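New to this. Please check this protein:
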Amino acid sequence: MSPRNSRESIRHHSGVRGTRGEASRKPVRDGQRRAWCTIFPVLLLLALAGLTGPAEAAAPALETTDGTEALRLYLDCDWGCDFTFLRTQITYVNWVRDRQDAEVHVLVTIQGGGNSREYTFNFIGLERFEGNDQRLIHTSSYTDTDDERRRGIQRLLELGLVRYVLETPQAAGLVVEFQNGEARDEPHTLVVDDPWNHWVYRIRAETDFRTEDRRDSQSYETSASAGRTTDMWRVGMGARYSYRESNFEFEDGGTYKNVSRSSSLYGQVIRTLAPHWGLGAGFSSRRSTFLNLDNSYRAAAAVEYNIFPYSESSEREFTIAYFVGGTRLDYEEITVFDKLSETYADQGAFIAFGMERPWGEARLDLQYSHFLDNFDRSRIEFRTDVEYHIVRGLSFDVYAGVSRIRDQIYLPKGGATDAEVLVARRQLETDLSFRGGVQLRYTFGSIYNNIVNSRLSSGSSLFSRVF
């Protein structure tokens, strides 16, 4: 039987409210009663935790029939993997929550295409499986349902675990079956007869309404796009429209209405030149109340070089690109340069470096652009994000971004009113923009993560919130 015309699956069998003034006039006895009301729930929770005992506080390690501990697996997947589903389906391994406790570390990287999403599974052997590594790829169409997508991930994950389970006593319960059908998980499989010719279309509509005593808001947003992706070409086009309205009533009876509209249209064509080269051209049009744009039109072209092959871009990339383009702007209001419309040409370059490794991931982006007739009208942007797993259970994440802005030619001459500033209706003048943050996470306790309990997970805030 040809692998291309078969579907492979793996099965494993294993045996009150009050004002501050009122509070200050309460007797001391009321204060003691209030303190007990605060402490008692905490004592009750501690007592309940003690009644459950250590056995229920952590999942026990799974053992085989001869008493040997089952394979310890750590799944490293930031998004796109349904952990709850996978843990309930793959029950013949010990799921651990830190890679340093694992015998097999599965690092999953995800890359989106025009009509599909590609999951790369890097199986990294640790401890007794040191050096026993492999790489598998699962391709999921955007038209797949969530259940089809997660079952495809489950299937490939189990296929990759076979070589490791075979070296454990659990191999005796392993059964391999072949089922007739198409092999969907082969990367870059060519469709013999595709009536859509690789084109994928998306349509989205969304609305939101909120009403309170002195404030209400409503919003509408719709978008449509079409794209086609092959090994040599990537073509895409789309349109979006957004309307947002907010109404406020002040204590003196006054009102304020804030309306924000935006729309955009784009199209692009990208050609593969070589394993490391890409060439593209595109156009766009945009209207935005926030940016004082009644209409804008842009056309540009770019060329990019990737030091690493594009086939490895889900795990690492180092790209250098150059672009040149022209833009026509029509404004809603006269700008700070006394313009109602203008046309300019610009050029720029950007460098991007990213990688995902067992120790964590890192990303660096640097962009520079300027007007061809005025180098002073320029913009430099730098962004970085690094996540590092320091030791077992401890990880450190730092991100930062800084922009030097010299090209805000679209700002209205009259500036923004206080009300527009408060509701963020207008882009404000600035020379420098900075954002950043640091996150430190530490997890300790049982290394196992086998048990799944979803009781009240969706409505826990209903009884835990104060008001």
